[in-house]
């Protein structure tokens, strides 16, 4: 992000644990047309003071998910920003500018800029598909080219590199050192083209709190792609020094002043979707990477960040509503979050866990009906209707179900628009960033957080695995209710496995066990979907009398299918029950 005059001439680097490195430890060095920062202890760091650096061209420094660029001098110090957006109604922007937290702590009235940006990519959208963006921004007499990466493992942190260029035309050679090597040939062979523009009026102010310094940018304007446009009305909170928790502290205080929606979706993502005419993309959670020697406290932080990132990435698609996978992934993210909060209970009594879990449960419940009707409308109903073309009433059943689906989405959107949802997300993000669980753990339990996470994982996984086996005793004779209890225990074990199995060194055993666990959960889920369909059909026939025959056909079809599912379900159970667990002493010694 191009900094205003009120912004220091450099960005803060992120040290281990997420706290920025003090400004006075920075040094700068020219490299490949960019001004890069060096830490004072880094080999080759010069002695040029920050005051001598060129303003607005010094990149920030955090780790990114992109492969390291080839030149060693550039790979040593990746750049980035620590930022959260708050979406607000355009008419309320002046009110937030005058909010008490800003009025009392801003250094001055700030600066105003008119920012015009052009975003570029290849015709095949090579950069976009690989989590990168390239823009050139015009402000005053300056043109600044910026390469950014998507969030990798942390919702606030993204890679960012800036350089001055002579015009709005991009200079690909300056960007190449920050592009993964595997993409460079493709980019060199295909010319970049403008995809969309951003015309933004920005009022930027610097706010100092005891915990840190944040640039607050009030952005209003328009994204334009061809004859399509999208308004922008948001507050960007970018960390300039101190703890990243300061961002959430300010966001919560602004939320007290009016309705805000926390977001990590960039202008770039919105602009590319606008140009393509597609809904917001949906991402599955990334696989966790945990060092076997990591302490439990650090493992909790990594797992929670992963859950929060997945949650925040799923929100735009769920709010948009065009892609049903958005609501599905948001529900998955909330289930994963509740699972890790339950997991943390084993580390001691944590006073905030119940409140956070309660809010996650509230939001998930208001999304559940939308997901259930999506499955019925998009999978169950059309498949059976196609298989039974002579059965009347499917059209009437579809119309009645569509009304329920519409009502369910209205309920889901109402919950997502509720200020309660915004406060929950912002409070959760701040709790994770500041590791608030440390304040809740009793003194006698603090030592557990410093112990190796692998010891904790072995105990927790063993207990949950034993619970699944216990509920699955005499599996062949289990009732539908019994199978439901097995499914819930299996689902919990799968989430715990996603969180904790990366701690164990036997990768082959881990993959094999995970496959068999996933296979069992899938079979149990299919069986449960049939039971859910019956509850959805209750009342539909009364609403549309001419659909009764079709409803009966669905019930009969699924009753027959449940009989066919039984052999594969029992086979999946046998495979799972016989699988060697990766956390066994034998597996760890091999």
Q: Any descriptors?
A:
10-stranded antiparallel β-sheet, alpha+beta, single chain, globular, 21 helices, 590 residues, 17% strand, disordered N terminus
Task: Tell me the distance between the termini.
Answer: 50 Å
Largest sheet properties:
10 strands, antiparallel
Number of helices: 21
Shape: globular
Mean pLDDT: 84
Count of DSSP strands: 12
Helical percentage: 40-55%
Strand composition percent: 15-25%
Poorly predicted runs: 1-78
Kindly name the structural category: alpha+beta
Radius of gyration: 26 Å
Structure explained in plain terms:
With 590 residues, this protein is of the alpha+beta class. Helices cover 50% and strands 17% of the residues. The chain has 21 helices and 12 strands. The strands form 2 sheets. Strands 3, 4, 5, 6, 7, 8, 9, 10, 11 and 12 form a 10-stranded antiparallel sheet that branches. It has a two-stranded antiparallel ribbon with strand order 1-2. It is globular, with a radius of gyration of 26 Å. It starts with 25 loop residues before the first strand and ends with a helix. 41% of the residues are buried.
Secondary-structure topology with pairs:
Layout: E1 26-31, E2 34-39, H1 72-75, E3 81-87, H2 93-97, H3 100-103, E4 111-121, H4 126-129, E5 132-139, E6 142-149, E7 157-158, E8 160-164, H5 172-175, H6 181-189, E9 193-209, E10 212-225, E11 228-242, H7 245-255, E12 261-263, H8 267-276, H9 296-320, H10 325-345, H11 351-387, H12 394-417, H13 419-433, H14 437-440, H15 446-450, H16 453-471, H17 480-500, H18 507-537, H19 540-543, H20 548-578, H21 585-589
Antiparallel strand pairs: 1-2, 3-7, 3-11, 3-12, 4-5, 4-9, 5-6, 6-8, 9-10, 10-11
Helix pairs in contact: 7-13, 9-10, 9-13, 10-11, 10-17, 11-12, 11-13, 11-20, 16-17, 17-18, 18-20
């Amino acid at each position: 992000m191009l900094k205003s005059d009120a912004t220091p001439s450099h960005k803060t680097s992120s040290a281990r644990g997420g706290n920025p490195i003090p400004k006075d430890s920075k040094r700068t060095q020219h490299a490949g047309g960019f001004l890069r920062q060096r830490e004072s202890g880094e080999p080759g760091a010069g002695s040029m003071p920050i005051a001598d650096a060129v303003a607005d061209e010094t990149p920030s420094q955090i780790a990114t998910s992109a492969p390291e660029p080839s030149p060693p001098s550039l790979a040593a110090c990746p750049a980035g920003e620590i930022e959260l957006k708050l979406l607000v109604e355009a008419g309320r922007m002046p009110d937030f500018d005058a909010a008490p937290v800003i009025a009392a702590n801003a250094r001055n009235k700030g600066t105003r800029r008119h920012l015009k940006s052009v975003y570029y990519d290849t015709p095949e959208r090579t950069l976009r598909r690989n989590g990168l963006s390239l823009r050139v921004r015009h402000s005053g007499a300056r043109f600044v080219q910026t390469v950014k990466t998507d969030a990798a493992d942390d919702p606030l942190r993204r890679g960012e590199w800036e350089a001055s260029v002579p015009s709005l035309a991009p200079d690909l050679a300056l960007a190449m050192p920050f592009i993964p090597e595997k993409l460079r040939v493709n980019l060199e062979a295909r010319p970049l083209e403008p995809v969309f523009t951003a015309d933004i009026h920005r009022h930027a102010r610097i706010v100092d709190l005891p915990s840190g310094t944040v640039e607050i940018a009030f952005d209003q304007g328009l994204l334009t792609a061809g004859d399509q446009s999208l308004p922008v009305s948001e507050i960007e909170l970018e960390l300039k020094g101190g703890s990243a928790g300061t961002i959430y502290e300010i966001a919560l205080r602004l939320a007290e002043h009016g309705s805000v929606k926390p977001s990590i979706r960039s202008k770039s993502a919105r602009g590319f979707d606008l140009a393509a005419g597609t809904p917001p993309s949906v991402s599955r959670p990334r696989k966790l990477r945990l060092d076997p020697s990591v302490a439990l406290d650090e493992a909790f932080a990594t797992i929670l960040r992963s859950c929060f990132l997945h949650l925040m990435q799923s929100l735009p698609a769920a709010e948009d509503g065009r892609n049903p996978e958005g609501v599905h992934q948001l529900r998955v993210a909330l289930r994963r979050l509740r699972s890790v909060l339950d997991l943390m209970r084993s580390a001691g009594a944590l006073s905030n866990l119940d409140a956070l879990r309660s809010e996650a449960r509230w939001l998930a419940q208001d999304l559940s009906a939308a997901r259930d009707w999506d499955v019925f409308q998009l999978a169950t109903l059309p498949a059976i209707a196609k298989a039974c073309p002579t059965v009347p009433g499917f059209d009437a059943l579809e119309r009645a179900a569509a009304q329920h689906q519409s009502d369910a989405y209205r309920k889901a959107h109402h919950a997502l628009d509720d200020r309660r949802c915004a406060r929950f997300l912002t409070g959760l993000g701040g709790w994770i960033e500041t590791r608030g669980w440390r304040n809740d753990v009793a003194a006698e339990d603090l030592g557990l957080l410093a112990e190796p996470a692998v010891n904790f994982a072995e105990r927790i996984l063993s207990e949950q695995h034993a619970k699944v086996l216990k509920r699955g005793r005499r599996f062949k004779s289990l009732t539908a209710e019994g199978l439901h209890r097995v499914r819930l225990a299996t689902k919990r074990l799968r989430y715990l496995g996603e969180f904790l199995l990366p701690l164990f060194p036997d990768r082959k055993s881990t993959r094999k066990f995970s496959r068999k666990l996933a296979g069992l959960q899938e079979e149990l889920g299919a069986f449960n979907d049939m039971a859910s369909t019956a509850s959805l059909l209750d009342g539909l026939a009364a609403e549309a009398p001419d659909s009764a025959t079709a409803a009966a056909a669905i019930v009969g079809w699924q009753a027959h299918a449940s009989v066919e599912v039984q052999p594969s379900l029992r086979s999946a159970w046998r495979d799972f029950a016989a699988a060697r667990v990766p956390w066994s002493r034998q597996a760890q010694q091999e």
